[in-house]
Amino acid sequence: MQDRTKLPFGTPVVGVLGAGQLARMMYESAISLGIAFRVFANDENESAAQVCADKTLGNLQDIESVLKFARSVDVITLDHELVPSETLESLVQNGIKVFPSPAAVQYAANKGLMRQELAKLEYPMPKWLLAENLEQARNFFTKFGSKIIAKSPTGGYDGRGVWGINTESELESLIFPVLLEEKVKFVRELSAVVVRSTHNQAVSYPVVETIQSNGICTQVIAPALDLDAERAGAAQAMALRIADDLDVVGVLAVELFDTGSGELLVNELAMRPHNSAHWTQDGSVTSQFENHLRAVLDLPLGSPEMVSQFAVMGNIIGGQHEDLHRGLLHCLARDPKLHIHLYGKEVREGRKVGHVNAIGDNLEDLIFRVTHAVDFLAGTIDE
Hints:
The chain has 12 helices and 17 strands. The chain has about 375 residues and is of the alpha+beta class.
């Protein structure tokens, strides 16, 4: 670990628990701001650990190791919400600044707690039940019929830990407690991303449309089309209120169902830089990653304004094609205005291994260019 006495006077030091691609992209922003950046990684081959020289290898369940790491930085933030709550609570009890706080992040880490808290605060949501046993699950199924959704309260992401329930007999295979939700009829999914600092300054990025495939976001369109200013403003205001109500510091993503009838329902929350705002790296004055660092350090937040009329982001999803870099020659020669971001991750089926951004004023063209690049890099097309 780098000796902080050798850093330029006054240099803030940010420590990140987890070393995935979000930490890697935060590191890029830290470099430009002159912020010292340290990651606590499980493995030296993790995305951020590959590029960040100042890293500590360890287990997030080893509270003493995490505490030693945390004492070397000014503030701790997170690459993901799966850090054990006991670890985060221990840091706070030892006087370490942690943003978002354990009190806030519990609502992103546990979908059952999220539903309970947002219900108390009267936010619009699908009908739901945190079922403790099979009898409760059967009663919910009887009330709402087939095609309900079951979610593991903790640990799920990118479609994992989510199951469609079509028959009552399928309830018997569930592990309780389990979150059951009415399957909402929606026309599209939206995401409202906001950033809030420790002294309550907040900014909101344009509301975007997210396109999902098998539970994984594959494309984002910014701003969401045919979303009038009033409804877009309502979504942004809701996200800002949630950030304030839950005392979130840093990025908060509020994933929403657009029912088509004017109603927006809260689906899920994320309290760290989010896939639905990766387009901001190239499409906004200030990226979500830079604003997240500014927020946790209580620096003034940057403008979320778009630099062009539209931005499109496409996720590169791993498949059978292992050599991502083979495609760079073709994609960059064919389209010099593309922005390609690879995470240094081993390609696995269904795994996000990078993304492509394009910005401009012709949305149809942007979608075509991003889709082509994503498909070529993933190896699903070869021309």
